[in-house]
Amino acid sequence: MHPRVAVEITEAPIVAQLSANRSDCGAVLEFRGVVRAEENGQQIEGLFYEAYQPMAQRQIEQIARELLDQFPCRAVSVTHRIGFVPAGEPSIAVCVAAPHRQEAISFIAEFMNRLKRDVPIWKRTSALSEPAS
Asked: Measuring CA to CA, which residue among 12, 11, 17, 26 is closest to residue 76?
């Protein structure tokens, strides 16, 4: 049986990914990358994410499939949000179901490293407005 890989790039808020009701997996982990209210020492409203969507989607799926050779998981779901993401909301969710926790933890850690390095998704800050004088 081939592992399931689902990838979505969306402007909609991110909701839950994988069901924890998997009898073949002892670990179902979800990582959410949340936009912080501070970037480089400045308070921000949020971040704007832009992507070359067809290539980003292809590369995310390719990275996930390559990592499955190294960390044998049964299901992977990745959702990355584009457009404006307010501080406090997730810009990415990665969910992994695996027989054991170590495969899932290692998969997510390496996936995030590769995503930041290799996928054409860019961000820019939206600074808080200065009060009018």
From this structure: 17
CB-based contacts of 86: which residues, under 8 Å, 6+ apart?
Answer: 35, 45, 46
Residue-level pLDDT at 17: 63
Distance spanning both ends of the chain, measured CA to CA: 64
> What span, in angstroms and rounded, lies between the C-alpha atoms of 114 and 48?
20
The matching CATH number, chosen from 3.40.190.10, 3.90.1170.40, 3.10.100.10, 3.40.980.10, for 4-14+24-127 is 3.90.1170.40
pLDDT at residue 130 in the model: 55
- For the chain (133 residues), the mean pLDDT of every run of 10, in chain order, is 87 78 86 93 94 96 96 94 97 95 97 97 80 50
- CA-nearest of 70, 76, 53, 56 to 116 is 56
